[in-house]
Amino acid sequence: MLFSFIIEMIGALACAISGIRLAALRRFDWFGAYIVGLVTALGGGTLRDAAMGQPAFWVSDFRMFAAYFICTALALVLVIVFSRWLVRRERMLMVFDAIGLAMFTVIGIEKALMRGCPMGVAIFMGLLTGAFGGVMRDILLNRVPLIFRKDIYAMASLIGGVCYWLVCLVGGSSEVCALVCLAVIVVIRMLAVRFSWHLPTLSRINQQESPKP
Predict the structure, then answer these.
(1) How open is the CA angle 183-188-189, to the nearest 5 degrees?
(2) Which three-class secondary structure state does DSSP give residue 198?
(3) Which of 12, 96, 135, 187 is 20 to 30 Å from 42 at the Cα level?
């Protein structure tokens, strides 16, 4: 339980920093930036619980409610104090996105398994938990969500979830499964950013008819 809690808090902090950083670039005030960071941290887990027919984890557990609010406050302080490194450097967003994606993917998988979901469903719940906080962040900031662009983002979460399952099949403990999943997602995401790996996009279809002679 302690291991999972630490992973969840690191993920919350990383996601909150990614949201607050983007809000700072849009010149939000401190309160607005805090809300964006909080939604980024809470969004994926809230959607996961809704999909499984459960009350949102932060509604039913005051300790988690307080922990996420404190993590977001800490993220706001870090962005204010270290704005030179966290805001002005473009790749910092990718770093914190990768960390948050990896941590919350693991949390989503483990919480789904604890509720008796089959592994395939658990991997999908990991994807929801990891990726959809960023979707809500980007919607609030009027950006095209990263998951809908050609970046290897959700695919990294999916591959990490499959690796979690494979390690579980060979008898790995939950801690080992989690660490492998974390490492795979972060490495794939960082390599994708470093080498500009992208998924293929649909060809543009010109819907305008050529003028008739």
Answers:
(1) 100
(2) strand
(3) 187
Residue at token pair 């870090």? 78
Q: Where are the beta strands (DSSP E) in the chain?
A: none
Q: What is this structure's pTM?
A: 0.88
Other Cβ atoms within 10 Å of 203 Cβ, number: 6
Query: Would you say how long the chain is, in residues?
Result: 213
C-beta separation of 127 from 154 below 8 A: yes
From residue 137, give the alpha-carbon distance in Å to each of 9, 33, 209, 213: 18, 10, 38, 49
d(CA 207, CA 24): 39
Reduce the DSSP state of residue 98 to 3 states and report it.
Answer: helix
Backbone angles phi, psi at 173, to 5 degrees: -70, 165
Distance in angstroms (rounded) separating the CA atoms of residues 3 and 83: 30
Query: Tens-of-pLDDT digits for all 213 residues of the chain?
Result: 788 899 999 999 999 999 999 999 899 999 999 999 999 999 999 999 999 999 999 998 999 999 999 999 999 999 999 887 877 676 777 888 899 999 999 999 999 999 999 999 999 999 999 999 989 999 999 988 877 777 788 899 999 999 999 999 999 999 999 999 999 999 999 998 888 888 777 665 555 544 554
